[in-house]
């Protein structure tokens, strides 16, 4: 180990506002913290100063320090003071009270008493990673045997592209390609460790593909009975008890949104829902311990169906008033509270909160030209991504004190249609599908502001 060299007294110049001896330095009303202090100083007093910050590791070269007096200084106890807080917890020296003058919520508090400034010193960002050079309408993700996959509905190349996360190269690589005609949705379902992908198409019928373990690719498993489906717009898969279902929302004037059920051999048409309403989206949600299905529509307000255990069917329960022309509905949880994100192309999109057996509005977001308001969360941070066909898309972050979403970041995507969370190898990504450009991949990163 190399020898540690002490700072010599000759290297140190005592300022006019200070009184210095071999073992102590006393400064009153100083505008700075003395630098190059001798390592054998045991007492350092800097009182009534005009500085608000002490640079990191300022006392690290003073192993003999036994007394530190910092009274009367105006300290800003923000992220710049995080190192000092940690030093105060670990030092053996006797230290005076370090009182905070700011920020506002910290005024009058003792930095000595702070357990952590972690939350205040950690921020996040979304940085562009790379793109998939194809237009897309939706993105879905699934995990199988310790691998993470992404299914991208790309109608312009008549494909459902399947990507796999490469744990060696640390990127997403092409894994398989399910071809079709005007594919508008690719939805994965894993039943008894079998992977299925439901592929909804505008033409040529819709189909279900199954992962072939021997061939390491998806092969056609069954055709979906779609005599009542004219224009599929969304696929929602879910489980009630031990039973698996998926619903296709039909957005045509003559369409009929349809529920399908798994019977161990395949999916079959189980229940017809919502005729002639041009449904745009379907969302399964548990409300007060009961299974519900919300259907959004271009021609009326969203309607809520509740699952009947006795009838083994969905029955119409009610509607969400004053929410005409909704193009997408997404349910999400913040702590133990449930919310809905309601997307509207014209007017304001809305955030609703489930309370006392009904949904009530908590926030309106201007959203002209939006086809998607997508909730998602990373590491106890809750976000909304509001897409726009006309301008920058906005990412909002939840303010726990105000209980609303605040604008956080702008990102540019051409005609975004979905935002999908994909997590793997302790990294978090957002896939942003684009109807008029490349599918964009952003990485969610943590930033330590105290560094």
Structure description:
The protein is mainly beta and 451 residues long. It has helices at residues 82-90, 118-121, and strands at 18-20, 24-28, 43-47, 67-69, 75-76, 94-95, 100-102, 122-132, 138-144, 147-154, 159-166, 171-179, 183-191, 194-201, 207-212, 217-223, 232-240, 243-250, 256-262, 267-275, 279-287, 290-297, 303-308, 313-319, 326-334, 337-344, 348-355, 358-366, 373-378, 381-386, 393-399, 404-411, 416-424, 427-434, 439-448. The strands form 9 sheets. A 5-stranded mixed beta sheet has the order 1-2-3-4-6, with no helix packed on it. A 4-stranded antiparallel beta sheet has the order 8-35-34-33.
Biggest pleated-sheet summary: 5 strands, mixed
Q: Mean of residue pLDDT?
A: 91
Distance between the termini: 28 Å
SS-derived structural category: mainly beta
Q: Please, how many helices?
A: 2
Computed Rg: 30 Å
Proportion of strand residues: over 45%
Strand order of the largest sheet: 1-2-3-4-6
**Number of E strands:** 35
Query: Which descriptor suits the 3D outline?
Result: elongated
Query: Percent of residues in helical segments?
Result: under 10%
Question: Uncertain runs with pLDDT below 50, 5 residues or more?
Answer: 1-7
């Amino acid at each position: 180990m190399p020898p540690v060299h002490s700072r010599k007294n000759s290297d140190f110049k005592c300022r006019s506002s200070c009184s210095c001896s071999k073992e102590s330095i006393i400064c009153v009303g100083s505008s700075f913290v003395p630098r190059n202090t001798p390592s054998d100083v045991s007492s350092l007093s800097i009182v009534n100063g005009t500085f608000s910050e002490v640079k990191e590791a300022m006392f690290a070269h003073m192993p003999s320090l036994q007394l530190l007096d910092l009274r009367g200084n105006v300290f800003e106890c923000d992220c710049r003071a995080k190192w000092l807080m940690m030093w105060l917890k670990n030092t053996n020296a006797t230290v005076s009270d370090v009182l905070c003058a700011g920020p506002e919520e910290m005024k009058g508090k003792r930095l000595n008493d702070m357990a952590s400034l972690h939350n205040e010193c950690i921020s996040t960002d979304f940085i562009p990673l790379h793109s998939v050079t194809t237009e897309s309408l939706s993105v879905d993700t699934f995990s199988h045997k310790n691998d993470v996959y992404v299914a991208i509905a790309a109608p312009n190349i008549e494909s459902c592209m399947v990507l796999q996360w490469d744990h060696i190269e640390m990127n997403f690589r092409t894994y398989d390609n399910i071809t079709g005609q005007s594919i508008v949705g690719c939805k994965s379902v894993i039943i008894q460790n079998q992977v299925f992908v439901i592929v909804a198409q505008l033409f040529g019928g819709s189909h279900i593909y199954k992962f072939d373990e021997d061939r390491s690719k998806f092969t056609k498993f069954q055709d979906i009975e779609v005599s009542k489906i004219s224009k599929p717009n969304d696929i929602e898969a879910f489980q009630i008890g031990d039973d698996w279902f998926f619903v296709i929302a039909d957005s045509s004037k003559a369409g009929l949104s349809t529920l399908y059920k798994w019977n161990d051999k395949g999916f079959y048409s189980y229940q017809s829902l919502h005729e002639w309403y041009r449904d745009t989206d379907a969302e399964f949600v548990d409300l007060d311990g009961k299974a519900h299905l919300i259907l959004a529509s271009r021609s009326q307000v969203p309607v809520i169906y509740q699952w009947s255990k006795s009838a083994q069917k969905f029955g119409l329960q009610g509607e969400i008033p004053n929410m005409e022309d909704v193009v997408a509905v997404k349910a999400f949880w913040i702590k133990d509270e449930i919310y809905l994100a309601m997307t509207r192309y014209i007017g304001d999109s809305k955030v609703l909160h489930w309370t006392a057996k009904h949904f009530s509005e908590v926030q309106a977001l201007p959203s002209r030209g939006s086809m998607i308001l997508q909730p998602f969360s990373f590491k106890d941070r809750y976000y909304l991504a509001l897409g726009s066909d006309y301008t920058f898309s906005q990412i909002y972050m939840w303010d726990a004190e105000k209980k609303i979403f605040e604008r956080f970041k702008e990102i540019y995507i051409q005609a975004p249609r979905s935002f999908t969370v994909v997590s793997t190898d302790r990294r978090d990504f957002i896939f942003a599908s684009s109807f008029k450009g490349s599918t964009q991949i952003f990485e969610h990163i943590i930033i330590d502001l105290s560094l």
